[in-house]
Amino acid sequence: MIRLSCLAILLMNLAGIISGSTLCYGKFSGAQNSQFVQAEIDTIAEKMLLAQRVSGGWPKQINTVAFNYDNFWSQEFILKVKAGFSHPDATIDNNATCREIRYLIKAYNKTQSKTYLAATETGIRYLLKMQYANGGFPQFYPDTSGYKKHITYNDDAMINALQILKDVSEGIQGFKIVSEDLRKRSALAVERGIACILKTKIYVDGKPTVWCAQHDHITFLPAKARAYELPSFSAAESVNITRFLMEINNPSPQVKEAVLGALDWLYKSVIFGFKTQRIKDPAQPKGQDVVLVTAPGAKIWARFYDLETGKPFFCGRDGIKKATLAEIENERRTGYAYYGIWPEKLLVMQYPDWHSGKK
């Protein structure tokens, strides 16, 4: 059987022709094809095939609305998905593209559908294509307007992409079937990514600390994204960056230095005796609020710490730094995680194993 190009497969998907399957108002049903044996159909995987962009990646939303592959897809929604085929909105933000690649390779290993494998490899090529020569990953590609062009650690975007490429290069997590060429290219991409992580680490008085949620793709310096995401030490994003470095076999002295510097900073940045609490408050627009309350024995970290003072800060949509959570608007207090316990498991459970060599 002639192997179709990835673009041809995507175009066939748009027409609803996927290995002889029939698309019916958002539900997918297998149809027997006389030319070859019909592979088992995975409904979620079929939806992912439809949502894949011409760039090879996936969007995180359709017409500004987040979508769920588990939900019923109406015919109207399917048409909206198809209409966006050539849109430049593919991204690694909010785990988009990475979740589809991981799901599709599992679907292939379950069904042996070559269509799922082709879509997986197209997604991997997308990650390789979007990576900067310096090893960083923008938040979106090919649309890199505004802050989308920054090297993006926010919400683990770059780390999720690197973890997939690492798994591909090692042939684990179902990726052993991926072409040898992609596995070799993925290995090189991971090396570049690690080099970028080391270049973007923030140093204070010559000592390594942690990272910002996003860094300038040219200077590597901490950069601003949305109005309330200013350059900072970011406790949240630095956790999985550190964890990724800790998973490297035979780490270099530079990697070890980066890990130890990050762990030291996270240890010193903990806030004792407080926790956040979501409460009912009829006086607020949506009847709720998030407040910081005393809690003996509790530990918490701020999401952002000032690059000059090292103190926690909070910023709403006005872009002005505030000293306390209570000073920013209710909409942001309830809609964004300014406090969390992100580093706790890393410091208490994973670091001791790494340091002792049990990893």
Short description:
This protein is globular. It has helices at 6-14, 43-51, 75-83, 98-111, 114-130, 157-170, 180-200, 235-246, 253-268, 330-335, 344-356; strands spanning 22-24, 27-29, 61-62, 65-66, 151-152, 203-204, 207-208, 214-215, 233-234, 271-280, 288-302, 304-305, 314-315, 321-322, 339-340.
Task: Please render the helix and strand layout as text.
Blueprint: H1 6-14, E1 22-24, E2 27-29, H2 43-51, E3 61-62, E4 65-66, H3 75-83, H4 98-111, H5 114-130, E5 151-152, H6 157-170, H7 180-200, E6 203-204, E7 207-208, E8 214-215, E9 233-234, H8 235-246, H9 253-268, E10 271-280, E11 288-302, E12 304-305, E13 314-315, E14 321-322, H10 330-335, E15 339-340, H11 344-356
Antiparallel strand pairs: 1-2, 3-4, 5-8, 6-7, 9-12, 10-11, 11-15, 13-14
Written account of the structure:
The protein is α+β, with helices and mostly antiparallel strands. The chain has a single domain (6-356), classed as Glycosyltransferase. The protein is built from eleven helices and 15 strands. A three-stranded antiparallel β-sheet has the order 10-11-15. Strands 1-2 form a two-stranded antiparallel ribbon. Strand 3 (61-62) and strand 4 form a beta hairpin. Helix 4 (98-111) runs antiparallel to helix 5. The longest helix has 21 residues, at 180-200. It is globular.
